[in-house]
Amino acid sequence: MRIIVQIRGNPRPQQRHRHKKQGKFVITYDPSSKDKDDFLAQIISKAPKEPFDEPLRVDLYFYMNRPKSHFGTGKNHGTLKKSAPRWHTSVPDADNLAKLVLDSMNKSFWRDDSIICYSRIVKQYSKTPFIKIVISSIDEPTPDVYLRYFGLKMLEHVSRVNMDRVCTDKSLLSLIDQFIQVSVTDRGKLDDMGVLNAISWLEENYRLKD
Description:
With about 210 residues, this protein is an alpha+beta fold. It contains six helices and six strands; from the N terminus they run βββαβαββαααα.
């Protein structure tokens, strides 16, 4: 089982619970409750008929909006500077971003947060901010296994379609070469992020699943 959910917009963090006086009492409230309701409303159509009740892996990718300082000025307006960072290293923290998403999806996508046994959180910049959530069974193949499978399938696909055209694209040949090198024990030239990005690219550009 594997479900991918995407939602556009700059990711928002979970805010700390606050207190307010109501008559003689002090009550605690969640200032992010509306953000959670809005978030869930945008993705509820992707929810399973019944919340999952099995060990889950949930990977969260937060693509944050780039500030204007990352781009050039004048005739270079809109062009990303070479010095612009890839990784988002300022607030909000990754765990606060993840908290809002997981709380929003709890009870609708899975029985309880406690069944999430493995998770990866990625936080980086993007020209178009969005959130990507990948939900899978905990016994799903690891990313490198997926990549090897899709790489081999891709090679079969392009050889059937138009290998002459593919062979003129050195970057694509290099990409295929990296895919085929990947195995469970040897990831070849790709690091973890490269593996995950390659899987995403393959799934978006090729329908290779059996």
